[in-house]
Design a protein that fits this description.
There is one protein chain. It is built from 21 helices and six strands. The protein has three domains: about 10-115, Fumarase C, Chain B, domain 1 (Orthogonal Bundle), CATH 1.10.275; about 120-215 and about 225-365, Fumarase/aspartase (Central domain) (Fumarase C, Chain A, domain 2, Up-down Bundle); about 370-470, Fumarase/aspartase (C-terminal domain) (Ribonucleotide Reductase Protein R1, domain 1). With about 475 residues, it is mainly α. Helix 9 packs antiparallel against helix 12. The model is unreliable at about 1-5 (pLDDT under 50). It binds arginine.
């Protein structure tokens, strides 16, 4: 093939008719998106098929042209799947690459496909189709992770651990209850995604470049063919806004934030000073110099990748903020952050569900840690309040009792009745049940609290929700 500048320019004949000189190699590379948007190919084909069917139904192209387009696109689909398709940077993006190939295969009918359409509404459609499918996958993966959480929580409804505030031992809780906190966060994440999906699932096609088209198109038919819930109601908005992608990235940031918090806890709990859990070896690495080490690499990376996902959200917000209506090429920059968000989130969720199934729990370490931290001090105060002492006074008495036990180097539960009575004469022998970790945990028995029977209830409700019953 002739490589002269004019010949190169001819290759970009889809839009170069009025240009006198070709773009430089650098500009071509700078403006091309084919390196990353080729992953939209399947959605581009689906969109084109629906558009062509509508054009034929409306009598805008002939049935023969539609048949040829269908056959050509199906051949292209196979070529892509079999890695036989040659992507060209000169053809800029996925849309022009496919259209050009279609024209090579079927001739003039291929050139008619773009009637009443622009790459502006075409790309917006492709991204929405991609994102809709990605949301469905991600929702499935979150639910799988919730299932893994439920299974672990079920095994540990009676396992006592110290609950923390300020990362200081606060009150005894069920480990199952702690895990169920993450189930709740993930449930809201699913709800947010399902809500976001409604706004993703609107059809931009028909908006054409920005103003709509003069052909007698039927947008509702295209929406129906592509399973969109409706059509974007304003053509300028349809081609220019990417708020649905921003919204998805915001959802992704919240999900990653939840996973990052869980990762931080795993990292702390795996530290031998805590020793609450062990992760399966396949999620950890050793040190090349310190033989004793087992490093929680996977949770650390999840925590680290959260920064990257937050970065993508900020990238999209910044991309959008100063764009005048309608489409601007800036929008081509929406894809890499979006794709990386989907990929990172997908891998993270997959790895997490697997990691949860391989967690070993050291119940004794959890119990010892709760005992060392005077986790039942609030229970002693509550006991005194129930005997008629004002809470503030009870708080003071218990603080003194804790100080005494601390000096003695024992737990509240290890003090003799007469020792406890030095701090309040209202203390009687029925106190001891309240001072055990189990007693304390079981006493918090109402909706949302840590008593094992309540945790069981939460798990049962969760199972119903996951099964789609409630
Ligand atoms: N590759 C472009 C994008 O991702 C497609 C739309 C280009 N439209 C245009 N008028 N240059 O946004």
């Amino acid at each position: 093939m002739d490589d002269s500048p004019l010949e190169q320019n001819k290759q970009q004949e889809t839009w170069s008719g009025r240009f006198n000189e070709p773009v430089s190699e650098l500009v071509q590379r700078y403006t091309a998106s084919i390196g990353f948007d080729q992953r939209l190919a399947e959605y581009d084909i689906q969109g084109s098929l629906a558009h062509a069917q509508m054009l034929a139904t409306q009598g805008i192209i002939s049935t023969e042209d539609f048949t040829a387009i269908k056959q050509g696109l199906s051949q292209i689909r196979n070529e892509i799947l079999n890695h036989q398709f040659t992507w060209s940077q000169q053809l800029e993006d996925v849309h022009l690459n496919i259209e050009k190939r279609l024209t090579v295969i079927i001739g003039d009918a291929g050139k008619r496909l773009h009637t009443g359409r622009s790459r502006n509404d075409q790309v917006a459609t492709d991204i929405r189709l991609f994102l809709r499918a990605s949301i469905d996958d991600i929702v499935g993966l979150i639910k799988a992770m919730q299932q893994a959480l439920l299974n672990l929580a079920q095994r540990h409804i009676h396992t006592v651990m110290p609950g923390f505030t300020h990362l200081q031992v606060a009150q005894p809780i069920s480990f199952g209850h702690h895990l169920m906190a993450y189930y709740e966060m993930l449930k809201r994440d699913v709800e947010r995604l399902i809500d976001c999906r409604k706004r993703v699932n609107q059809l931009p096609l028909g908006a054409a470049a920005l103003a709509g088209t003069s052909y007698p198109i039927n947008r509702e038919l295209v929406a129906q063919l592509l399973n969109f819930e409706g059509v974007c109601k304003n053509s300028l908005d349809a081609v220019s806004d990417r708020d649905f992608a921003i919204e998805f990235c915001a959802c992704a940031s919240v999900i990653m934030t939840h996973l990052s918090r869980m990762s931080e806890e795993f990292i702390i709990w795996m530290n031998p000073l805590f020793g609450f859990i062990q992760l399966a070896d396949r999620f950890c690495t050793g040190s090349s110099i310190m033989p004793q080490k087992k490093n929680p690499d996977v949770p650390e990376l999840v925590r680290g990748k959260t920064g990257r996902i937050n970065g993508h959200l900020v990238a999209l917000l910044t991309l959008m903020k100063a764009q005048p209506l309608a489409y601007n090429k800036d929008n081509q920059e929406d894809k890499e952050p979006l794709f990386d968000t989907v990929d990172t989130l997908t891998d993270t969720l997959r790895i997490y569900a697997d990691m949860l199934t391989g967690i070993q729990v050291n119940q004794d370490a959890m119990r010892q840690s709760a005992l060392r931290g005077y986790a039942t001090a609030t229970d002693l105060a509550d006991y005194l309040v129930k005997k008629g002492i004002p809470f503030r006074d009870a708080h003071e008495m218990v603080a003194k009792t804790v100080q005494y036990a601390e000096q003695k180097g024992c737990d509240l539960n290890d003090l003799e009745l007469n020792e406890l009575q030095q701090f309040s004469s209202s203390i009687e022998s029925d106190i001891f049940i309240h001072l055990t970790l189990q007693g304390s945990m079981e006493s918090r028995n109402h909706t949302g609290a840590t008593a094992p029977c309540q945790v069981q209830r939460a798990i049962d409700e969760a199972r119903q929700w996951l099964a789609g019953i409630s």
